[in-house]
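Q: Here's a chain of 258 amino acids. Please give me its 3D structure as tokens.
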Amino acid sequence: RVRVTDKGNLSYEKPLSISLLDSDVFSPLTLDSNLMLWLDAMDRATLDRGEYMGELGTPEDGESFKIWLDKSGKQHHARPLKGTPLWSKQLLNQKHGVHLHNASLVIDDSNLSFDNWSKLTAAIVFEHDDVNFANIIGKSNFAGWMNNDKDLAWSIFTHRLDNSYNLWGPAVITDIPANYYFNGGTHSGSRSFQSQDGGGLGILIFSYTSNNFSVRINGQLIHLYTGISGAIQSKPELNVTIGSYSDGRSIHKIKIGE
């Protein structure tokens, strides 16, 4: 039992229960019941070569797929938008992964279900090539220097990675309106995901709530900005996409773990 005493010396007792999960399989569902999307490239059973699960069966190594099941339970499955997404048995550190080589994915019903959020956390396990002006994941038709008129709600994009440039990062436009673009090139570890610049597989976590814009690379907080407020601006005409703009332009080259 747990006993708590307040400043007036009044106490309250309640039984304490702790549950432990006897499993070595991590599930984001244990973190937040508001999880809207979970794509797990390690789980081949969540992919199918047909238009729906069970139609043609799971892809073998190097084969394409036409649906990637959303494990959040919200039915926001991913489907090919441009090119031919592939599943690979040993894509990243000898582990399963999804290869978007000149290919991209679109998330089902994300134009409205993912619109005008007051807060957002996106986590992606991936690595990418040096592709300029391209969306990694987001609700966007833009990548580059920001202003409030850009066709973007939020995005993690690569801006310029050619020559000595290292411009990339999350960006958001709020309903104030106001915008903020994290320039990854000014921070240590910012080439961590760039496979052509000595980087590789890692995890990027981008979080936004009003007055709190944060970026974490491989568990380390590398940027925190508190000078932007408001909900993420409404863009109901844009779907959430992975590997290209919402309209399919500017295709990236990405390897995804989870």
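Q: Can you summarize the key feature?
A: The CA atoms of residues 48 and 55 lie 7 Å apart.
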